[in-house]
User: What shape does this take?
Amino acid sequence: MTDRLYFSDSYLTEFEARVLQGEQAGNFFEVRLDRTAFYPTSGGQPHDLGFIEGFPVVDVVDGPDGTIIHRLQHRLPLTGAQCRVDWPRRFDHMQQHTGQHILSQAFIRVASLATIGFHLSAEYATIDLEAAEVGRATLRSVEDLANSIVYQNRSVTPQLVSPDEAAGLNFRKPSQRKGILRVVTIEDFDVSACGGTHVRQTGEIGGIFIHRVERVNRRTRVEFICGERSLHSYRHRSGDLDRIARGLSVAPRDAPDRVEKQTLEMKTIRKRLKAKNEWLAELLAQDLFDQAPSREGIRIVKHQFEGEERGFLTLLAQRLLACGPCWVLLGNGGEQAQLLLARSESLSGDLRPVMTECSRMISGRGGGAPALVQGGGSDSGKLRNALDRAAQRVVSLTNG
Assistant: This one.
């Protein structure tokens, strides 16, 4: 069994230990120490990183019989070892995990909502609540209560307790573990059975902020950040807001209203543009159809655009097919070449091989159904040649 030093002191980052066992396991050298401050992945909290004898520790997991396995990419001798835990990563985990205890208790106090899941990643932390939906007002009240506990700088105390002692404690969530329990108590607020690492005073958390909420499998997932992550998030979001405000030539506080106004204006413009495109496609389709050469009453409509909206070609093709029996060969030049080939349902012939050949000419590819294919490529300079080749192929299909 490994002596878990982090149980009594989460702030311990440098220690000496004796290597009890070391063996190669796949790509890793697995080391068992007589004592360790390295936290193994457990309870939603990721493992610590650091160094043993100067070699990086890349993973830490619970082993059998109460041991802890440290995975390295280098072999170690079975001697004493100098060990060092990555403190910035450890302290970040301590802030997030202690913040989770407070936030989970705050949800119980404010809305009687229990936490049924916790996950801590490198960028965010989440808790899952036993509720399909949580209102904005509830979230604000929970956040306010949680941060009041942070600002009061209450003590956070870990201790090992016997089953008899545990029976007299008011746990936020009952523990299924047997025997001696490690209990983390936040002064006059929360009592939880937990083997993780935590700060000594709630003020060290810095702040608890709910980022966003989403529904996941009839539960509510709350994403939150604490401590230094909050500072990084503030800087990132503040920078984004400043950049948006500068682009709109308004003060940062006015940017949200301006964005909302311009979004509504854009929706109106798109609606009007759609109506104009439909009208234009109707007129252009009839004009192109009338001017197109005819073979045995079948028109071959070929036209190349430059920088046109991609959706306009589809709209135009639909209008052209409504004009009468025809082959439609449309191209659109620009940074990326676009091809659209179509035929009337009354005609026969598979356009997919035609598209395969023509799209290769523009260094691209395409596909679709026998009567309608689309493709694209990077060589707009060869687009006209591709359209000419498509015209030759459909002529042969018509003759066939």
About this structure: The radius of gyration is 33 Å.
